[in-house]
Amino acid sequence: MTQAENRPASVGGRILTPHGWVRGYLHVDAGTGSIGHIIADDAAPDDRLVLPGFIDLHVHGAGGTDIMEGGDAARRVARLHARHGTTTLLGTTMTAPPEQIDRALHGLAAAIAAPDPDAAQVLGVHLEGPFLNCARLGAQPPLVTTGSIEVVRRWHAIAPIRVLTLAPEVPGHLALIPQLAALGIRVQAGHSAGTYADGVAALEAGLAGFTHLFNGMSGMDHRAPGIAAAALAHGEFAEIIPDLRHVQPGALHAALRAIPRLYAVTDATAATGMPDGEYMLGSQRVLKCAGCVRLVLGDSLAGSALTMDQALRNLVDIGLTLEDASHRVTRFPAEYLGLQDRGRLVPGQRADLVVLGTDLQIRQVVIAGHALNPAEGNHAPVFS
Question: Terminal CA-to-CA distance of the chain, rounded, Å?
């Protein structure tokens, strides 16, 4: 099937628009790969739910492949995540020697420059490390360094860094935040042992968000509040891993109530979409077992095996409406990055769509107007 033949004329069902649900048909402009118009029609299928494509800003791997491998790793990772409804992602690095980060960035740059129609669009880089606190490494290796604007500029020239995680309490990092923001990079606090005051100071300096909230950071002790407390008290945006293992539902609800635009990420590793066994996360061996991914040495949680469609279902399972859950995997991450062309189903936006059944299982994925080949793992197309 050619790419032209894989462009749907319209998608029918219950369509989630910024103004609520509309039963009808969403028409795709085949020439531009954008949404043409949406027409209400009570005769449209009632058993199909049409959502914006999922946007995942924290992805280390999938399908046995790790972003740090470089080469075509990013394309392979993006193909697997597309089968689970992710239409846009950020390839995420690990703390590593500079030459290994260079290799990963060159691989990501190639994926950015030549998008694969059957893969999620790799929009840029989430640089997670090496500007972290060695006291809160989690699954990151002990290769942290102090941040340098010269180093970031060099990496940014290889592949666009959209998000950068750092520990704001490390000497020199507070002054680095506005310099990074001036480059258009969204700076997040993570792998941090900072105090509440450190978090507030970072927000005042231009900190934009928080990396995998509650994990890899000082917490919410009522007498010694840390970075998580600053996020809950003052954060507008934060990412969270809703696999129900990194964060239990009670803490998730607290964060949902406190942070207006809390959004979901997978923190997915090479173990995603694979059977139980050993995989690599950067230079470290991890073990997938019973849905969790842990370091082989140390037993710390080491990313996840989560996909965005399961993240959506988990949010609904703990009590969110489907509309609210959808915003947290689509609209809010788009708004966080300042993306104007995706995250909502309105005319003129990229036709990035996910079609679900009433069981919230994937029925089809459309990326920039291109229907993902059913052979890649989706059910038969549901387009007219």
Answer: 16
Q: Confirm or deny that 84 is annotated as ligand binding.
A: no
Residues 163, 310, 269, 370, CA torsion sign: negative
| Ligand-binding site membership of 126 (annotated) | no
Give CA separation, 144 vs 18, 94, 128, in Å.
Answer: 42, 10, 11
Q: Which domains does the chain have, with CATH numbers?
A: 10-51+344-376 (2.30.40.10), 54-337 (3.20.20.140)
Confidence category of residue 30, pLDDT binned at 50, 70, 90:
confident
Catalytic residue among 56, 118, 243, 267: 267
261 is in an annotated binding site: no
Q: What is the largest CA-CA distance in the chain?
A: 62
Q: What is the CA radius of gyration of the chain?
A: 20
pTM over 0.90: yes
Q: What are phi and psi of 123, to 5 degrees?
A: -90, -20
Residue 128 marked as a ligand binder: yes
Q: How would residue 381 be classed by pLDDT, with cut points 50, 70 and 90?
A: very low
Region label for 175, one of left (φ > 0), alpha (ψ between -120 and 50) or beta (otherwise): alpha
Taking only the tens place, the pLDDT of each residue in 160-171 is 999 999 999 999
For residue 299, what pLDDT band results from cuts at 50, 70 and 90? confident
The response to whether 303 counts as a known ligand-binding position is yes
pLDDT digits 0-9 by tens, 93-133: 999 999 999 999 999 999 999 999 999 999 999 999 899 99
Q: Residue type for 253, please?
A: H
Backbone angles phi, psi at 40, to 5 degrees: -70, 140
Mean pLDDT in the chain? 95
Helices (H), the chain: 73-82, 98-113, 149-158, 173-182, 196-205, 227-234, 249-258, 308-317, 322-327, 331-337
Reply yes or no on whether 299 is catalytic. Answer: no
